[in-house]
Protein 1
Amino acid sequence: MSRWLLGEFRTSQQLLEAARGLRARGFTRMDALTPFPVEGIDEVLSLPPSRLPLLGLVAGVGGAGGAYLVQWFTQAVDWPLDVGGRPLHSGPAFIPIVFESAVLSAAGALFLGVLVACGLPRVTHPFFDLEDFRSASIDGFWLAVTVVDDAGRDAADAALRALGAAQVSLVDEARR
Amino acid sequence: MSRVVLPRYDGGRRAMVGAGGGGVLALLATLVGGWGAPREAAHGYLFAFAWWLSLCLGALLILAAFHASRARWPTVLRRPLEIMAACGPLFAVFFVPVALAMPQLFPWVSPPADLGAHGLHLLAHKRPYLNVPFFLARAVLYFLVWGVVGGALWRWSVRQDAEAGISERGIHLTQHQRRLSAGTLPLVVLCLSFACLDWLMSLEPLWQSTVYALSVGCGGVVAALATVAILAAGGRGPGEFGALMGPRHFRRLGTLLLAFLCLWAYCGFSQFMLIWIASLPEEVTWYRARLDGGWLPVAVLLALGHFAVPFFLLLSRRIKEHPRSLAWVSAWLLLMRVVDVYWLVLPALHPGRASFHWTSVTAWLGLGGLSVAVVLWLARGGYTVPVRDPFLLHSLRVPEQ
């Protein structure tokens, strides 16, 4: 069961200041939900660097190695194929396929990786139960603070209001 | 808002004198070496000339490309590129020994009989293009184009520094730079392409490859970007442009380096693969000269050291954003450029037999010493960034992504 306090701010500057203020008050588990990327928010929230590039690297190298292996096995081992008198194991001729395959697998892995990292196949999220949260894709800058107990909830609520939140709501995953 | 005072650059006086003096001495040594071994010295000199010229032309290409694409973020690191690109006339002077050594360098000047009847017949066909007067006239045209474009871009940018603020005249100067770059970029690239064909490819006049010049040009851009990265990481003192660069500038610089590295490898490999798979006698000679007799380890070193290893290093954002790490990768790449140009030029002298003559080193040091001295002379007394460029502030606050 997760609980969040959602605070809406009117401008990206307010959001940045509020995130800084909350960190100064000791809140660390926060996320920002904004209509466009806000410069500097990553540093304020001290989000860990994305692991997606690593996925792309592994998939790319794997795709390249796999493509070379398949070509070598099918043309030099399993069914020796003489093309115009070239060697059966024609390394240079395999490289274009290796390159294409590396690009394809890296791009495919990143495409699917982003979807999985975004939480799919889950189709909704408790935040969307909040009618006003629609503004997160229009003109509202939202800050979500994860809270564990009632004391934390009250403290976060007070902090968000003190930092200038236009509205504060509690979202509870179990309530759905 | 912090305030940064940018003094003019007036260091490097001793380096300038030292590099210039050392360069003259090294060139004299090359001349002495050329007395005993004229062909070795001529090829060594051509290798050194091609390497240092590629730095100048690589800078001119990427600088003109920045202007033509109206790029704003590189404003902070533009000045070193401008100074390097303005060195075209210097290389026109450096070209004189190449022109004098033509009989030693280019077999088509007086075709040797061992080319065979077919080879001589082919060369006779190439006569309307490959003859001494037309060769020299083309060289004059190339240096004229590079000298005028590189010189104007540098001069306008320096003239802009003298404005009192961001003035209307200063904005006009920026517009001039952009229009000149966009208009002449095709001409500059065509001159580079034909120059590669004339000065490097015609060392083996019976061989041809259409991607050759592109590969050499990409190598030049790699060298120029690597030089900027080293200068930026090394010059982080007050008033030097490196101090104004943040991780984001270094990341973009590293990304451009990676892109041109990939393009170089793509051109080089596609040339190799097409020739390898077609396996035609008149085409494979060029690679036989560069793979047999001890050259193979050099070719493997190029594949690994000029592409594979730096490719994976430059994938890492942490390395690109860390000035010192990027500078080390760049220094390694400059060394690999030396190996690449050596591998392009020297096998023409002794095909299929790895050779080395000390005049290559002295010629490289000589031309390098003089080039560095001239660059320092151009840089001294000026700012290390285009201080009155209307986009400098934007460049200093480059947004994320």
Protein 2
Amino acid sequence: MWGRVLARAAVMLVIVLWTMFAAGPFLWVATISLRTTSEFMAAPYALPETWRFDKFATAWTGSGYDTYFTNSILVVFSAVAIVTAVGAMAAHALARYRFPGNRLVYLLIFSTIVLPPQITVIALFQTLAKLGLYDTRVGLTLVYAAVQLPLTVYILESFFARIPADLFDAARIDGYSEWATFWKVAFPVAMPAIATVVILNTILLWNEFLYAVVLIADDARRTLPLGIQKFMGDQLEDYGMIATGLMIAIVPVVLIYAIFSEKLIQGMTAGAVK
Amino acid sequence: MTSPRERPAWGAIVPFLLPATVFYLGLTAYPVIRTVWNSVHEVLPRREAYVGGAHYVELWADDTFWRAVRNTVTWALVAPFLEVSIALLLALALYARVPAARILRIAWFTPVLMSYVVVGIVWMWIYNYDWGAANAILRAVGLGHWAQPWLGTTDTALPALIVVTTWMWTGFNMVVLLAALHALPTEVIEAAELDRCGWGAKLTRVMVPLILPTILNLLVLSFVGKMKIFDLVWITTKGGPLWSTETVSTYVYKRAFEWSTFDLGYPSAIATVWFVIVMSFVAVLTWMVRRQQKLEY
Amino acid sequence: MTPRRAMPGCALAAVLAAAALAAPAASQEITLWSHWAAEQPKRQFIEEAIRRFEAAHPGVTVRATWYEKNALYAALRTALRAGQGPDVFYAEPDQVEYVQNGFLLDLSQGIDWANVEPWAREIWTHGGKPYGLPLEAWTVELYVNTRLLSELGWQMPANLQFTHGQLLEIVRKARERNIVPISAGVGDRPFPGAFLTHETLLMRLGRVDYGRLLKGEIRWDDPRVVESLRAVRALVEARAFPPGVATLQLGQSHVYFHTNPGTVFFPMGSWYTSRAFNPPDQGGQPADFPLGILRMPAPDNAACPTCRTIAVGGSYVINAASRHPDKAKAFLNAFTTPEMGALWLQNVMVQTGIKADVGMVTGPRAGYFRDLAAANEGSEYFFGIPLQILQGRARDTFTQVVNTAFISGQVTVEEVVRQMNAAMGAR
């Protein structure tokens, strides 16, 4: 009996400690974001005496965040839509059909997951410049789709491969074309996995920095991570304001996750990331 | 369980694969091939000259490169182990049905939702010598003499950054492991309980072996991520002090963009060598994972 | 913005709009990519130049994009390589690779060089041709909190220069009273930690031999070099720098000097003003801060105690691939007038490569310029900090070893010598 209680206490201790460690930095930044820099420097770990929510309005209006937000949403959502469609089609073909070179194609796509992006970004830039897509949101969108393609195919292929063949046989007997089979049978069945890659890709691309730095030049087309960096530069040593800027960047993603986390978990429980 | 793959039906395969192939060839394969081609050339904006293996010979004797390799491999071996083992511990804790599990899960996952730009800034504050949380805690518990500029000392900078990636990614690994645990067939767990297995035995003999493929997959994913790590180092230490946090990616970037030369040949050679090394590691690891999965079926 | 100020802008916009309507085909756009997104005084100065240029050249507009330095460099490297990029962009004279690869337009013709300081033009000259318009120039200064100094029982020396021995005494005295003696920020910059070391080397060796040291013609185990390094090492061992110096960032090091906790000295480029003269809640110094300016300390047996470094910083260059080279040159000429030089001094509070009369600076900061001039009187200048002269591995090693590890006490003099010799030989 006592052993049980002790074990329970140990588990709770681990949980409490890790929660403090995991959430502490975020909460600390949250308190700083509501205080001025002089208040912060006087007592770095105090709670806000006055809750200065107006700092968020100042940060928002004084920084062009609205432009960066719109750009991020446009680029990231289009890229995720493209990569999901393109990736799912490829994963389906690789998982379902036996053809010479199937595994080679899979391996080639997979191998690029490990590619360090710092070096290929040059050749990418040259390609985009040739196509007249440099410094355009379309160009960045296409690159984002290409970058996330390997991971998307990798995750979806393993899921599609486990859809029972009987399902497809039944579809064929019902007179579905291959195309319709994919969109009406395979895609809906794979929804948990699709949801997972959509959420993962959204989070990863929302925070992407390197490609954006190199492929976007004009301020009107910059995405949020570039905006954050610019904002940091503008504020010099104004920690209070930097923290406000950080919170503006963090909160939407955390909200998206909080709302959709059940979907993500479902996808994973169904074996999407296995 | 795997569905048998069907005969070639090129009429269906080609349209399905075509868009991905176009993306892949244009925006992934071409840059890669170009990189390999670059690595045997001196690549200046208006002059490209074939130099054969010269860059590779130079690389062999490049101390900074080897130091970067040592740092990166250390990171890539230590971090996955830390992340996945702590994550497993946490996942088991949540699996044991503690209160407020959903909130905990979100709290633990939050770090991975932040970009490295944000994470880098926050942790530079935490490691700040004068008012950072790390030293503040040490001083509060009377260990003030341990206070350090954690990112500024050659001995502590790399471990301090490994702590950051562990902080960031453990939650992600935990969520995946928890999902895997919940996906376990209940009959197996019940059977183990009927057999009056102890909690420890149930854990080591039944649950962990069953989710081993997931664990291995996560180790591979984390390993690959650390072999490429760039943003965090770039924002916090830029590889310093004294190259103690230099990684292969930061060195490639420095050679390509920071050193006063436009030559892309040498950095491309580094990237090529690194690509081959990482690929062989991953091939071996994936082979192990696949073998494990075969055993399962 | 007050209505009165807005008026000329509106009038100008109306004129431009009319011009654009009248002759849409004739309108030309010059693109400018510039650093200084965050440095308001410089940015306002450039924007003023753009306004004047556009008013004088109807039908021509300048579209400026403001960057942080690192983002700008990354964008430029890729854009230039693909034969694209803006007409005019920001560059610094150490970026010789731009010249070597033919990216910059030769500015021999069409620029009003009579109004540019000859030495500043010289720094941008390669193979007899100038390639950049030197806007920003700066010197290495030793800023001092005169109140703290007198509390420690010392006065500003008459010649505005301590010896290394005196500095060491002040450092020890400050430490006894729990005051950090010297602030420095090297966490995010590759050069401020080296100021004290390279100025010591320059004074000990003299201009010629110091230049040879940086070219690799004198080895780092030369006794004069070792002696200079030992002088700096003595300060490090006396705990002259903050314990967290290796990660202290440039902006933080300013606050560390003038506000919290406050140090006696601060070796810094003369662009100290661009941060320190901000309002205090934006990282600026307190309103009543007792700022003094000294020369760097002279080492024993100095070959040239009056030697010091002057450097050209932010400059504008023209893309060789520009489709409007003449218009771009006309734009650069918007800067080369004595009035614009004076406006730069007045606004930015840093020296400039444009000929300008310091006497034309008026207002509350005029005193600062008098102090700066006093500290620079009779100086013999060496052009460029080591980072602008060294390249490749030598530059990287200098950054890691001399800028950071040496002043944070993580390497010995012997180790510095060994690493620098190896790196200079590797080039």
Protein 3
Amino acid sequence: MAKVLMKGNEALAEAAIRAGCRYFFGYPITPQNEISQYLAKRLPEVGGVFVQAESEIAAINMVYGAAGAGARVMTSSSGPGISLKQEGITYMAGAELPCVIVNIQRGGPGLGGIQPAQSDYFQAVKGGGHGDYRLLVLAPATVQEMVDLMEKAFDLADEYRNPVMILGDGILGQMMEPVEFSEEKETLRLEKPWATTGAKGRNPNIINSLFLDPAELEKHNHHLQQKYDRMRKEVLWENYQTNDAELILVGYGTSARIAKAVVDQARAQGIKAGLFRPISLFPFPKVALQEACKKSERVLTVEMSMGQLVEDIRYNLEFKVPVHLYGRVGGMVPAARAVLEEVKRLVNSGKEGKTHDNSF
Amino acid sequence: MLQEIILAGFGGQGVMSMGQLLAYAGLVEGKHVSWIPSYGPEMRGGTANCSVTISDEEVSSPIITEPDTLIVLNRPSLEKFEQDVKPGGRLLINSSLIDIEPKRQDLQVLKIPVTELGREILGNNRVSNMIILGAFVELTRAVSLESVIGALKKVLPEYRHNLIPLNHKALETGIELAKGREFLHFRSCG
């Protein structure tokens, strides 16, 4: 298929259809409205169902229902709406229901603003709702990658019987880039013998997250933790110019695009910089990060938050390398020039033997 | 080659579609492109802008903080973005609606009264964006006229294809103006 120019939000929506998604339940919020706009038109064309629910809470519970019946189902929102959905998300994690949730992040906290941000990182990778649970979290950085990760997201959701989150931001959702779709494959989808499809001729399936016996609930938690351990093999990442890098920039999504430009600009000035880009944020590519940072003297995270990813980078590097933060928030986007200045400052302070107040 | 362009004006002047056309024209030529809109509580008469990158290489960062070219259709856009243009960069001004002089002395400036020209020559000031886009194409050769026409066919819905000849004419008007006025209206780099 030839390349077409598409908005990230629209490309995500089309990719979901091609991944076999036939159900979407959502509630409007900027900057992700093009997803529902697109699916409202497209889903009926392919025999699917689109519902604009009366609220985010209603929408996520419709997702629970469709997922329980074994359907490929998706919802999307942004910060405040994702917060409203947390109850439903933890219920789905507890009941082990597969679905895809898209968060096109905007500035927070509270109602915040509508411009791009990455300040929902903790909420996405640490669980978000109550109880011990995890989502698989995938963070695309281009419109093409938004498409490529969508099919993967549905496959992972089915394989692990777990909600998968696609974590984007306002820029990725709104920007247009060329994309190429592969033809919709009639792939063998996983059987879902656990789904509530009508109990004729078999014992009823029960989908629930309620375990009143603490011993049973502990057992269920252990089972979930084993599943999260098994997910570790699903790590995805990108290395850019990391082989000889003395300073490694780390970022995901839009911030990683900016950091990549900074690496090129730094290299042009003789600074050996590189970029490590986690694509899966949970599971986190810990081994790959450590490998990429083996020769580096310092690490700088570039993020649209006041420092969330930076904590995981320090943790995953086991506090062996100084990790600094360059963060912009509230809908402000890091400028490559400003990040380059920070890179130069860090490299120079390293030469003078100074440590930076912002590192650990 | 890497071209970073910011296009700005009032909502309704066709700034967003001008940027999309440019990006699509780049795509038609097999280049790497990106288009980022300003988005928000905006409306007709409010301000709108978009960033377009056209590159032979993969676009690392699609976010433009120092454009090579700034195209402005109204005065607030000039005031907002003039300072960001790369030293020695290009500035295309809609002089029908911008009655102030740019402050920078190092830019190559082309002023065209596109709103008036659209109305007077083509009888439709809604194609004034295409006039200034034509001038941009002539001055930078970032994409060819043929690619822009090809892009029009993709961007416009079928029932609007009757407008392609008018848009074509507007683009050519801009190209001719840029040819004829280049030396008159471009200040040398100071």
Protein 4
Amino acid sequence: MTIMMPASDQAVLARRDEIVAALRAIVPGEGVIDSAAEMVPYESDGLMAYRQPPMVVVLPDTTEQVSNVLKYCFEQGIKVVPRGSGTSLSGGALPLADGVLLGLGKFKRIREIDFDNRAVVTEPGVTNLAISQAVAHAGFYYAPDPSSQIACSIGGNVAENSGGVHCLKYGMTTNNVLGCEIVLITGEIIRIGGKSAETSGYDLMGIITGSEGLLGVITEVTVRILQKPETARALMVGFAQVEAAGECVARIIGAGIIPGGMEMMDRPAIHAAEAFVHAGYPLDVEALLIIELDGPGVEVDELIGRVEAIAQGCGSTTLQISNSEMERNLFWAGRKAAFPAVGRISPDYLCMDGTIPRGALPKALARIRDLSEKYGLRVANVFHAGDGNLHPLILYDANQPGEMDKAEAFGADILRVCVELGGVLTGEHGVGVEKRDLMPEMFSEIDLNQQQRLKCAFDAQGLLNPGKVFPTLHRCAELGRVHVHGGKLAFPDLPRF
Amino acid sequence: MAASSPSPIFPGFEQARVDTLKIRDAADVEQAVRAAIASEQPLEIIGHGSKRLIGQPMATNALLDLSALNAVVAYEPNELIITVQAGAPLADVLSLIDSKNQQFAFEPINTSALLGTPDIGTIGGMIGAGLAGPRRIRAGGARDHLLGAHAVSGFGDSFKAGGKVVKNVTGYDLCKLLAGSWGTLAVMTEVTMKVMPRPESERTLVLSGLDDVTANRAMTAALGSPFDVSGAAHLPASAFRADIGGFADPGSAGQALTLLRLEGITASAVHRAAALAVLLAPFGAAEILQDAASAAVWSSIRDVKSFAADGALGAWPVWRIVCPPATGGALGQALSRDTGGDVVYDWGGGLIWVALPPKPDAQAALVRTRVNAAGGHATLIRASEQVRRNIDVFHPQQDGLASLSERVRHGFDPKNILNRGRMIRGTAT
């Protein structure tokens, strides 16, 4: 673990027994876990390179308990780390040694399904997939589909603004949530939005989504649901050069076609995936595109034809079109298993998550190749090509001394390249602890201060999930100061009319 | 020093009391805001001033005029993004992206007919107001299409929010806050918007003679179908008191119309229109409008032409109500009955425009009681300055949410320099 977390508060640690007892008075029975052995599962999330046992784990099952736990922690100055299913890939739920880990796993009930208003009101611990399953009988689904959807919770999805392979067409979490109930660190319960398309006043739902557990604890979410498209078909297209694949993606978009999904894999990723799932991927290509069109059959068939013509015009060397659900699923099988497939060819791997302008793809891949040579570590690339979200997988062996540090430095360099090419540090995994110290690559101190002022509006003491997202947390009093520049002369030097 | 020459943009505006600060670049905005902080003088932020009549009346002595910040910085159709300065005329930007067969999918409203102002406004105004048209039910609002921004906060500092790519979760999503904040948080100087392909074809199913509640049910059935409906509106017969434009073809004067739009490649739009007509057969036989005729109808609905300032109800106050879509028909019908007003519905019932016979309070208490019971919120979008002074223009929030919103505002503009008092009554002075 190479990242610095906020210093532990020794006074809090010294009062651990008293704190555990107070929490037990709020959350009775098995809802408070303080034995070292039982806390092990909570030591890390999906970013397993980082581990830290919390001071205590609390698993409330009512909003009132959440409110009372937070109020107690606020009054006692105790840090709190919220956690959903613990699938974060950026360390968003990494515990603190002197903090309460607040797990929402017991909030497992879907509260209301409202087909007429096309909305589902759910507790935050319900998994992403469970929402789709609960409405499937009426032909509906919940669109965002992060690859961890069988396990990840909807509360965690809101906290991280999770994406998925279909978000080019259907949006990320933020485009698919309507409202929430959130508990502030003071214990105050706030309701925002509901089943209406828009909330009143400032769009607080919009900033809570993707706030990575730093603003409040979500205790209820209202999501919008959509009717499933009538049908879906996919093309699997191979190219001899990455550039040609990139050009193909640009021309598809340029032709006004927004596919349901458009994924790219480079040669190492194709080989790893094929060896793992035998999807029939071509092995003599440099880039493979999987393009899925969804909608009414008549539309899908016509667009398949148009995309096929574009791909051929870009010099595709292999091209297959799915003619059955089995075939379509087979095309996807390799892509969906890309991460574990890479896990088979390397003892460890780091998954990065930058976004670049799509046109910069060949340049980005060339730079990643150079870095791969420089660091002496292999890399496989999978790419949400439609929206420019790149997932380089850096292969390393944690048992080799220094190799993990090298892999992390390599990853950081890749993200710097993304920013340099006009992109961003993270497209869907979040900043968490993983990219925290890279934030200044993308944002100036003024930019970060403005974001932190928002934090101050919700949690002025900085007790919720400290050590995440921001490399340094400034004191709110300091951030709130207005500097009066210059004298009292109003508007010097401006043209007046 | 106050200017003396009449403003070409705001005829009748009391020039003698107001400084207009013509911004040349982002640095000017910083300088102006810093000077405003130093002299404790609030600023009213304007582009073309097309939406100045919306909000609580403000007491500002200076206008920050961004209309000269009007450049297109970069337009990359294949990346689905456009970066423009905030003062860029919306009309120009729309025609530029239209030339590449692209559009802002949220269908921004042109408020000029409703408010009786001459201009559609600027990109900055479009985002600050965040008023989305019929396609919001499918494509989201302005907030879903603002990817990045450069803005100057009430601290007088230029900051960056978001990025220039369509997928980004780096840091807090400050863009969401800027959209719909009516210029009360920061002065946007440059924005990056997501653009989407313009559909090749469109078809509109028109059902006639349904009452509001039945029409609401028809729209709910359509939106719950797999046919990807991108517009669902209902105009009661009263909506056609005057010629509202766009409706020549149906020729259904005297009849309520329920309209459902399908967009996409031609084969798909045709197929779905036919399939939807079958699904909705219990609600009556549907007429189908094609392309240009369909587009004309939706432009009229988008801009609320039924309540145009130069129309029969031009002098009536207009409320914009957002509510759970399936409750809209009953809510609108009750409001119409209780107030003697007219209503039109968009967003499948989730957006209700209500025009009411003029009263000093625009019947706010009655409207809000009904709207609260339905779980919605109401904004008084058109009313005289006197009426807007009397009542809360934006929907009052519950205590906890209101204080949180105020703390958020304070985090952007602690001295209340930017559009002071526009969103909350009683905070203008």
